[in-house]
Specification:
about 325 residues, globular, disordered C terminus
């Protein structure tokens, strides 16, 4: 296996595990920080560190139009995609939040088709199967939610999906600078939302909330989003976003290990369906790549044959007059 596929597998594993754990980390951090203030600190700190590191590596600063694209996609990713999850987890159980956020690959597929992207039947089947699996996974637990919180959790993946599709079509800087610019743009927008909604802290944050915020900055943002950006650049969107099927499994494991929740047969069945969907989407991607490679090879052979035929039947041009 070459280095590129190996890196894609590693990036996918990082996104699955790290972002699966952020539901629990967000819940802990919200005990000491308001939702949009939490997101603003998280992404401004992570974005500034990543920006400095990218510059140290020699990457150029974004141009003006690239900052505009980074701001737009950053708003979709962070203000809508992350901020609404933070809002939802104030009143919605982490299990229900993971169910609703896991609809994101479906929205990516729908938005992608609206923008003209081609989606195979196997990928579409994987998306639908994954959604079914997530629902089954969470049937075994008690899902308590307020209507407003549930709505926030449902709108959040739409913003994230639209940001994923837009990122592939808008002028953005390359390398780590792309992630840094989006984090800075989204973090600044979250700070404005926090100020505009008059968020404030009633008391100093606890040690647990502060540690959770640090974890979200370093792992959830720097490591997780960098891995996700790599996936978006090197795999199809339906594959990159299939991590959402695995995140609920991580959330359930954390609930059992840390929160003392029970894992019943229904949840185990849902986990099996979820993993099956991830495998289906992955195999659909490999099949599409194989077909594309075979088609390209046939085209090159055809071009070569035509060129050979032309050389054998067309007289050579004379160099004399």
């Amino acid at each position: 296996m070459s280095a590129k596929p190996r890196l894609a597998y590693v990036a996918f594993a990082v996104v699955c595990v790290v972002w699966g754990s952020t539901y629990f980390a967000i819940r802990v951090a919200l005990e000491g920080f308001p939702p949009f203030f939490l997101g603003a600190v998280r992404f401004l700190v992570a974005g500034a560190l990543l920006f400095a590191f990218a510059r140290w590596r020699g990457e150029r600063s974004p141009r003006a139009h690239e900052w505009g694209s980074a701001l737009l996609t950053g708003v979709l990713f962070f203000v809508v995609g992350n901020g609404l999850v933070n809002m939802a987890e104030q009143s919605v159980s982490s299990g229900l939040a993971s169910v609703l956020v896991a609809t994101m690959p479906l929205w990516v597929t729908l938005f992608g088709r609206l923008f003209g992207a081609r989606v195979s039947r196997h990928e579409l089947a994987g998306v639908v199967l994954g959604l079914v699996g997530v629902v089954v996974l969470n049937l075994g637990g008690e899902l308590r939610a307020s209507p407003g919180g549930a709505l926030c959790a449902l709108l959040a993946p739409m913003g994230w999906a639209l940001g994923s599709v837009a990122s592939a079509r808008m002028p953005l800087p390359g390398g780590m600078m792309r992630t840094a610019a989006q984090m800075l743009g989204g973090g600044a927008a979250m700070a404005l939302v926090s100020g505009g909604t008059h968020e404030h802290m009633t008391a100093g944050p606890s040690l647990q909330a502060s540690v959770a915020l640090a974890y979200l900055c370093v792992f959830g943002s720097l490591l997780g989003f960098s891995a996700y950006t790599y996936l978006l650049s090197n795999t199809r969107p339906a594959v990159a976003t299939s991590y959402a099927y695995v995140n609920p499994i991580i959330a359930v494991v954390l609930g059992v290990a840390v929160g003392g929740e029970r894992l019943g047969l229904t949840s185990l069945a849902g986990a099996g369906v979820v993993l099956t969907a991830v495998i289906l989407v992955g195999r659909a991607r490999r099949s599409s790549q194989s077909l594309a490679s075979a088609s390209l090879s046939r085209s090159m052979v055809a071009v070569g044959s035509c060129s050979t035929s032309k050389r054998s039947t067309t007289p050579e041009s004379s160099t004399s007059t």
